[in-house]
Amino acid sequence: MKVAVIGANGKQGSMIVEEAFKRGLDVTSIVRDEKKSPTEKFLVRDVYNLTHNDVKDFDVLVDALGFFGDSVKEFVPSTQHLIDILEETDTRLMVVGGAGSLYVNKEHTQRRFEQADFPDFVKPLSLEMGKALDVLRQSNINWTYLSPADDFDFDAEKTGEYVLAGEEMTFDKNGVSKISYADYAVAIVDEIIAAKHQKERISVRW
Length: 206
What we know:
The protein has about 210 residues and is an alpha/beta fold. Helix content is about 30%, strand content about 20%. It has an eight-stranded mixed sheet with strand order 3-2-1-4-5-6-10-8, with helices on both faces. Strands 7-9 form a two-stranded parallel sheet. Helix 1 (about 10-20) packs across helix 5 and helix 3 (about 75-85) runs parallel beside helix 4.
């Protein structure tokens, strides 16, 4: 299986690359500087410079881009660009999503970032990531959006275990919603291989 990872040298992207390699996948990094590529195979591209020809031969394209501060507004246009270049291909888009857009009630009328206790400084990021998910839902391409748990911990250990859920935020028996970056990478590579949740948003926690 041929997989390309945009943002392959980022915190989450690099873990996805490492996990994919361990599973024997053929991985290409898409980076803005070849010196920062974690793989021997790479494309030097800004996301907006990627073309249909660049991506059409991959089985899966992973969007692990991170935007912060004023640049969070790039989530929607960058997602739309990927949709545009993936049209009329068989390439599946796997998106490293956010937890803020997960629903917190069964009626799906309130999202996590709309709750009073959600940190104000994260709201713009969650809002834009949620808008990008809406853009995906309206597209014709094959996509999967994987939201992490509420507590997404870079430093936490890899256990190799996780629980998959859907559009709603879920919790363990202690009322905790948490996942490590490492186990998120395991979950996303599992889904790349199994392809059980196409054109869906799913979520993952311990």
